[in-house]
Amino acid sequence: MGVNRDVRVHVGELVLDGFEHVDRDLLAAAFRSELVRLVRERGVPAEARQVGELTGLPELPRTNSPARLGEALARAVHAGLTGRGNSR
User: Fold this and answer.
1) What is the DSSP code string of 67-84?
2) Which of 62, 54, 61, 64 is nearest to 15 (CA)?
3) Which one-letter DSSP state was computed for residue 42?
4) Do residues 5 and 40 lie in contact, with contact meaning Cβ atoms separated by under 8 Å?
5) Is the pLDDT of residue 68 over 90?
6) Are 30 and 19 in contact (CB under 8 A)?
7) Who contacts 3 (Cβ-Cβ below 8 Å, separation ≥6)?
8) Whole-model pTM?
9) Can you tell which superkingdom this protein's organism belongs to (predicted)?
């Protein structure tokens, strides 16, 4: 199995239930930064060419920190891209 580090990820929408009072801009910046880091360092399987929707991702921590939440969300998305979640 080859690993691809030249990846383009388009996230159309993030839906987070139960996190109403989190700074969305800070969360998005932390998410973007962490996902870029993970893809550069670990890549994604070459066969993960196109994923429509990720489901079955790990639970996110209950936190009011947008940075921690964004990083945890990026790790969950990366896990889904690498086959540790369910994709459609």
Assistant:
1) HHHHHHHHHHHHHHHTTS
2) 54
3) H
4) yes
5) yes
6) no
7) 42, 43, 44, 45, 46
8) 0.78
9) Bacteria
